[in-house]
Amino acid sequence: MPAPSARVSRAGLLYGVAAYGLWGLLPLYFKALGGVGPLEVLCHRVLGSALLLWGWVWLRSSRQEVRAALRPRVLALLSLTGLLVASNWLVYIWAVMNGRVVEASLGYFINPLLSLALGVVFLRERLRPLAWAAVGLAAAGVGLEAFQQGGLPWPALALAFSFALYGLLRKLAPVEAALGLAVETALLAPLALAALAWLGLDGQLAFLRRSGLLDGLLLLAGLITAVPLVCFNRAVRLLPLSTAGFLQYLAPSGQFLLGVLAFREPMPEGRWLAFALIWAALALFSVDLARRRG
Description:
This protein is an all-alpha fold. The chain is built from 13 helices and no strands. It has one domain (2-293). It has helices at residues 2-32, 38-60, 63-69, 72-97, 101-123, 129-149, 154-170, 177-201, 212-219, 221-238, 241-247, 250-262, 269-293. Helix 2 (38-60) crosses helix 4 and helix 5 (101-123) crosses helix 7.
C-alpha cells in the first residue's frame, strides 16, 4: 500500500509544480504579444478559456455538479467573481506589457497575507501572534515600496485585492475550480465579444490584421489559461494543503526572476529591502501555517 500512496504524492507534486511554474512563466507570453492592447488580450483569454474549460467540464464534471453551479444564487456569486478575475487578468496583462513584472509579482506575494486579513474582517477568523507579525511585516514592505515609488504600488495592490476577494467569494460558492472558471468565463463571454466588436469598429483590433504568428499566439490564450488551472485542480486533490500552500510561491518567484533577470527591470536597494520584508513575512506565515496544521 505505501507505494501507490507515494506515486499519488509524486503525481500531485508534478501537477503543482506544473501549475505554478506555468503561471510563473506567463509574462513571457504576454511580452510576446507586444503591440496588442491589454483589453484585446483579455477578451481572447476569456473566450478561449470558456471554450476549453467547457470541453473539460463536459468530460469530467457530472450533470449534478453543473446543475449546482447554475443555480441562481451560485450564478450571482460567479458573476461577481467573474468580474473580479477579469479585472485581475486585465491589470496583470497591463503590468507585464508596461514593464512592471516585478511589481505584479509583489501583488501575488502579498496575496496570501491579504487573504489572512480579509478572513479576520469578513469571516471573523482569529490570527495568532506570528500571523499578525507576518501581516505587519508585509504592510511595512508595501509601505516601503510606496515610499520608493512616491505613491502606492497600485498594480500590486489591485492584483492582491482582486485575487484575495475572488478567493473569499469563491469560498461561498460550492463549485470546484475548473467548473467555476468555466461558468465565470461563459458569463464574461458576451462582454468579451462586444469589446472585440468595438475594438474592430474603432480600428484597434490586432487579430487577423497583423501577422499569422500573432494570430496564433492570441488563439493560444485560452490554452495558456486552462492548462495550469487543470493542473492546479489535480494538484489540490492529491497534495496536502500545506504542500499546495508552499508551492503557490513558485508563481510570483518565477515572475520576479523574469522581471529582474530577463526584462532588466530596476531593483534599487530600497526595493530589495521591501521585498526582503515581504519574504520574511511569508516565512513567518509559513511557519505559523505549519504549526497550526501540525
